[in-house]
Amino acid sequence: MRFHDLTVVPVAGDGVVAHLAGAILVVLPGPDQRDRALDLVTSARGACDAAGGLPAADLAHRFAEVITTAGEGELPPFGSLADGPRGVVLFLYGAIEAHVSGATDFRVSGDEATTWVDRVVGPDVERVVLVPLGTGPEPDANPAFELGEGVVPGSGVVLSVGAEVAVPAAPERAPAEPPPLEVEEPDTAETPAAAVEGPPPPPPPPPGEASPTPVVPFEAVSLLDPGDVEEREPLPLAVEEAPEPEDSPEVAQVEGILCSREHFNSPDALYCSSCGISMVHQTHNLVKGARPPLGFLVFDDGSTFTLDADYLMGREPEVDESAGEVRPLLLDDPDRTVSRGHAELRLVGWDVTVADRGSANGTFVWDESTSQWQRLVAGVPVPIKPGARVALGRRTFVYETPHKPHGA
Ligand SMILES: [Zn+2]
Predict the structure, then answer these.
(1) Would the pTM of this model clear 0.70, i.e. be above it?
(2) Residue 199, pLDDT score
């Protein structure tokens, strides 16, 4: 599915359907949520305008912020389909479902996760229907009401690929295997130090003009319950989650504080990350509890990933799953700038650290103060702050969390 080939036909109804630059948004507000719905459209429009054509990552970032800072039940269900560098990205929040059809058919809904659900939609997809939860894949949508750019009332949308699809695909979309770069695998690279002195690695991309929105401190959140692990179907994701054990008995215990409604929080929290209530007047008695997910990663292709455990990130991360500690996090990278086992993310108390694993092209953290990428020393874990931008080869992600880290 190529975004620019899409025909956009709204389904009549009380919600809002927006066709923006590079994205389609459907918001399904309840009676008291109309203002929030229009705010979402304005926010999405801002992200699309700033992104200049491929807004998937900026939009995911914006939505994730809005969701994690909204109180429970405050936000209406919404869904979007946005263009990204690695394909079209579907993003769903709450009681909205998507029916995707083409070479493979599937249905996915926003209420499958307590946060949100996202998918990279493959090139073979021909039709996406976004409708309220419980609506079938064939809503009443008259093609005569095709929507160009704009915002109209509607309770859903039917997106289909026009006849132009038969036209030969653009070269950059050709499925041909790109020639491998002169990038050594970590296993065969001599040493990380030697790798540094070798031919200069392809520099990680500078943050684009559409650089990440300034990080707004999170104040209120509806994060996952510790036992509530987001499940994903094995779809062609840019970033695939490993199948996760049904129950994770090894959820780490950490010390934290309780809000007046007994939600478990970081000792430094100013606001409850579950209900948003101020923690300032709470007595800060430390208690032990199961550590909740420590936020999420927003990748350059618009996909997101919840940090609920330690992960080895890479093109083909090999982990000993029987050891049970580190899980694999696959990064799609046709250019092979990402090593098989590239970098490790570890949750330490309420902090997240990243460590390079001797990758050929290195792991970099963007340093705001010097406006430069800082290369990590292999094997040395470095804590990352909310809003930190990290590069692995040519792939990048931004780390976001509703939990206030130690000392922040
Ligand atoms: Zn609370």
Answers:
(1) no
(2) 41
